[in-house]
Design goal:
Layout: E1 2-7, H1 16-31, E2 40-45, E3 59-66, H2 71-87, E4 95-102, E5 108-109, E6 112-113
Parallel strand pairs: 1-2, 3-4
Antiparallel strand pairs: 1-3, 5-6
Helix pairs in contact: 1-2
Length: about 130
Amino acid sequence: MAHIEMTEGRVAPVDAKKLMAAVRRAMIEVLRIPPDDPLVRLSTFPRDHVLAPARMREVTVHVLMFAGRPETTKNRLYAEVANRFEALGVPRGDVLVVVHDVPVANWGVGGVPAGDLDLDIVLAPDAE
């Protein structure tokens, strides 16, 4: 699951669907999750709803995922999101990716603990 946050007017106009698709493709490729799995949302905040230092990155991408993936996989995800955004006209230096490693025990799907479901998730793709 991912959530993209941007402040209105701080990034050159880019189609929101293209940004969301870029994050989804990066997650599928790097994290090796099923193509129909990742939910990606985008929120744009009016300038007067954001109080941030001038050095703040223009686009923040929060990626929530099951804990257990190695640092090398996360590093590849950071680079892949930045590469894909750069291809859409967003400078890579304006992209901040934050990974939230959430233990499987802290996820529930349809009222069932995620650990009790067969979710076809690869937690250590670098190990294969």
